[in-house]
Amino acid sequence: MTEDTVTRAVTTHVVGAGDDAITYDIHGDLADATVDRPALFLFAGPMDASGLALLAARITDRPVVTYDPRGAGRNPVGTADITVEQHASDLHRVIAALGVGPVDAFGTSGGAVHLLALAAAHPDDVRLAVVHEPPLAEHLPDREAVLAVVADMKRTYGEQGDGAAMAKFIAFVMLDGPVPDGYLDGPAPDPAMFGLSSEDDGTRTNPLMRNMPGTIAYRIDVEALRELGERVVVAVGVESGDALAARGGRSAAAAIGRRVTDFPSHHAGFTDQPGYPGDPAGFAARLQEVLG
Questions:
Q1: Can you give the pTM of this predicted structure?
Q2: b/e string for 159-189 if b means 16 or more Cβ within 10 A?
């Protein structure tokens, strides 16, 4: 047992076994959950629980749950691709193991896509789903171009390894707006530009690459999500511009008939990274406001 920044007990648990083992943490006491203040499940993808630590520490009115997605953090690693359906099933298993009924859930980035899949497949698991910047291509006008870039990235990972592929990924997520014509015709970015090695160490366990293209190409269940109405909140950062995840969030919101809810900062606004400062306090306050 450890203590977080508000001296709240954090206990670690595992559901499942072998390759299906999923590690999750409970911040506080689940007995403190109520109908009006259910447990709050915070998650990303493929970012593990450590990336949600600042946000979890600022939610003090209810117990909080964080977890490591399949293939990341403290979970078993592998080389096979991971599907959105697998992640949704893992979330469902964690919620069932908590045994406290429906939770409020906040999913960001790939985790937002997983939350949309969970809410559609298991609506009774979630009271309110806050979906923050899901990087979905399906409803974008440049869908085919986005998927071509991702396919190229995936090919590069298989042929050249982590550094070359991650350099392409970073350059792509920095793109503001639709994929321009001829994007793939230009020279590949140098991994050294991003502090990465161009050497291929032979490993193929990067959870980000294992989740692509499945996450970005995922097709949400529009009708099932429309039926949930106000139980689905689609959030986009006010500083996110027209980056893929922001565009994906807006397009998903339009598809299911929801208005976008503004959140402070950018895609990683719940963190405070060197050179990429966010607004953890403002982000947490906005999340609590939305949760009610």
A1: 0.96
A2: ebbbbbbbbbbebbeebeeebeeebeeeeeb
